[in-house]
Amino acid sequence: MRDDLALPRAKAGQAPDVFAPGAWLSMREYGEDEAVDFAIVGTGAGSGTLACRLAEAGFSVVAFDAGPFWRPLEDFASDEMSQSMLYWTDERLVDGANPLKMGSNNSGRGVGGSTVHFAMVSLRFRPEWFKSRTKLGYGVEWPIDWREMWSYYDEVERALCISGPVTYPWGPRRPRYPYRAHPLNAAAEYLARGAEALEIDWSPTPIATLSAPRGRAPPCVNRGFCVSGCSTNAKQSVLVTWIPRALQAGAEIWDLAMVGRIEIDARGKASGLHYHREGQWRSQKARNVVVAGYAIETPRLLLNSACPQFPDGLANSSGLVGRNLMVQLNQAVWGQVAAEVRSYKAPPSLALSEHWNYEDRGKDYFGGWCCMSQGPLPIAWARTLSGARGLWGQALVDEMARANHNVGLKMVGEVLPNPDNRVTLAEEKDRFGLPIPRVTFSLSDNERAMIRHALGFMEESLTMTGAKECWREEDDTCHLNGTARMGDDPLTSVVNADCRSWDVPNLWICDGSVFPTVGGANPSLTIQAIACRTADRISHLARRGEL
Length: 547
What we know:
Layout: E1 14-16, E2 24-26, E3 38-41, H1 47-56, E4 61-64, H2 72-75, E5 93-95, H3 132-136, H4 146-159, E6 163-164, E7 179-180, H5 186-197, E8 203-204, H6 242-248, E9 252-254, E10 258-264, E11 270-277, E12 280-285, E13 289-291, H7 294-304, E14 326-329, E15 332-336, E16 351-353, H8 355-358, E17 369-373, H9 378-388, H10 394-400, E18 406-414, E19 422-429, E20 435-440, H11 445-464, E21 468-473, E22 477-481, E23 507-509, H12 524-543
Parallel strand pairs: 3-4, 3-13, 4-9, 5-20, 6-7, 13-23
Antiparallel strand pairs: 1-2, 8-16, 10-11, 11-12, 14-18, 14-22, 15-18, 15-21, 16-17, 17-18, 19-20
Helix pairs in contact: 1-6, 1-12, 4-12, 5-11
């Protein structure tokens, strides 16, 4: 890490102003011995959103992030190698029949979490997915009704000023997106042409980057470095949306603060947490603790906080903490076209089709998947060619020389919950002396059937546009969900519909780990919607004296 990022920036009553180089915002400070209403682990899609909404509701909030407090206008460069600092690359053990790739595709480290480098695709879940066991015959029921979620999707889309089409072809009627859709780049036009040739619907992608100015944030200028960090603040990450609001409302944000343990008092309630900052372990007292470190670090912290009252880890009476880890399938088909595409220009996924998320006929598997246009940056593309195709040396150089004529389609596909896909603690320790997570994952026959269907369909779509030399990238995943599922029954879930632990009443979990199922849509919009709902439920419970 760069020297200037090795020391905390949020301290002494101030935090970085992400919209002005060298500028600061005032920040409320709480004493370590002062029991705040909520100590929140993480500042990403779930945690950053929840910190904002709770602070705006009048609660005292301190949020902790293991990474730096970024200043995008100063810290971010149009340099893929430099921007690898955004990813959570601490050691993790991976095993199973299909060990997961960890890092840039699914984990962020720093204020804003992985939303700082996500692809910004902002999709609502298909309503039937919330009751997939009843409606579709597979998976697990969510304890939340889709109609309630629809109102929170509205809120998040407004908060992020999502840029999207006037009308969207799939799902129930919804309000118009706040900002107009971005113009299609050449890569997106190929998806549209293929979809029309196959007579299926397609749409400009709803994405969380501005198509017009918003306050101090400018519109997107099509740099194409979205998944390496936006240096202009056009990308509407948690870092530039919910976090400034949280600070203004009185929340305190601790950067470079690695939380290692949640403390439990004699009554079996959470009393605070221990965190490492500036070379030493410190503590923060709290009346409530929220864990929102995403689907690997959340179960890791819960398991590492085992104590005499909870020897198997916190919130784990069901034995499900760490289980049912779900990624999403991210296979692709690539081809060569005569026209110059330069697919890296503009955001990477400007067009999509959710046809196979909403069409259940013609499948020999359960679940859905979405197809998106792609725009890999040069180093990422070279890694794909060397890893997926085994190209090296002159063969790799020759293929890279044709990169501007490359076009591709990629899936985001549903993985079913499987208790054997899980996060546990390894014997090895990290630099903080904490056990590192072991991540075990294997594909099922259902996922393999989905991959076969999706690859065949995407190849047919590309071929219909005139693409030649098509080849398949068959080993890739994205996103991380599950490991602390919500539900209606404490025997089969970790938290209830309010994201409240069944076992420890003042312990909450609010991130993608609470997903019972993942669907075939990027999860960030749903995570933020759940956080907004959880904030409202906490406020309601507080008014009734039930916190």
